[in-house]
Amino acid sequence: MTALYVMALLVPVAFLSGWFGARRAVAHRSGMRVSEFSSDYFRGLNYLLNEEQDKAIEVFLRLAEYNRDTVETHLALGNLFRRRGEVDRAIRLHQHLVSRPGLTDAMKTVALLELGEDYMRAGLLDRAEALFSDLVAMDAHAPSALRHLVAIYQHERDWHKAIDHARRLEAMTGESEAPMIAQFYCELADRARQHGARAEAREHLQQAFQCQPDCVRAYMLTGRLHAEAGEHVEAAEAYEAAVAADVAFVPEILPPLLDSYARTGQMARAERFLRDILTRYHGISPVLALAHLYEQRDGERTAVEFLTSQLRQRPSVRGLMALIDATMDKVEGEARENFLILRDLTRKLLEGQAMYRCSRCGFGAKAHHWQCPSCKSWGTIRPIHGVANE
Amino acid sequence: MRLLALLILLLSIGAGVVVGALNADLVGYDLAFAQVQWPKGAALLVALVFGWLLGGLTAWLGTRLGHRRARRRARRAESGNGTSAGP
After folding, report:
1. ipTM field
2. How many domains does chain B have?
């Protein structure tokens, strides 16, 4: 009988030990799964940060296999494919996501936005435009969709639609897009000017000034319109206003401005203006312009003296080349040969140099662009200030 | 740690063999539908194993049902968020 009592007592003890053991085993197993999942995730993230996209794709593909419900993993994968240039794979993945039943509306719109970006990257702008327009109509991710639509219309040079969508974006986000819209109006004005429609061009320039009162490009276009109409006094005023708006564009503005001064015989005003610019602008362009002016008015000796004194304050390869050109006639024999070698050397040095750089993405260019060819920002390309540049 | 667990296991087996040898006499059980006679040690072992398995099964079932309930609740919450955030 005693044995039976002992057994009856031992059964609950065994039950409890079994219960604890099983709990611990289950917790251990799920912990292992979680840690395996998260270690894979962090490994993928690490690869991404190290720009090892191939390995990141491998890890994320395995993660997507683990859990087919993880939409975010699929989105990350699609993004990676697109960044690597495998646009067709990205499109297939995002199309698959969009068509998946049971996906929440929020996730579906995210997938649609990604698909639109894939189409943009693949150059299928009409499909991308349709998708982004749908998203704007649905009011889902509208700011991003509007930004992409503005980019598409810029690419297609449909400036009216670009302005319309940029204004909608402005109203939606509350952030000013005025400088960009002013550039769009400038594009319209330039197009009208090329077609000889001066009145229309002036109207667009007025709109550009309404968006951005200190728009340098609009001032420069106004000057150009006046110069083409033979109104050189007004042209010079417009160019001066452009310099006042942003002194960084002096190398672009000086040639047409000096031309307008010359045509109206206002060389004293030109000298005053250039002297004033010298105090505010530290590039070489106004020095060269002023040296040229002195050469024509007072002779070569004054020009060389001025150039030499200025080169001590602001050393420049372009200035040195101008000095060599100016003094070349005065030297003979071996010294002349040496001067010729030096001139060729400086010319070759300048040939390979980028004169402008985008202040946003660092893109280097030899000619000035109003829109950066690399990052597509407006008005960010400026002259490089350095010994071998401006 | 592993060595200690191995030592305890060996001791337990040894104790089981000794207790089994010392209690080799039969005990009778009336299970209503059948009457069985087992050695005392074997009966004790069966009772312990039965209790241990029952405890494990209960814990495993409890955890599994709990997880399933939590997953269902999360899915319901996600679909609720999705419809409210959608266009």
Report:
1. 0.70
2. 1
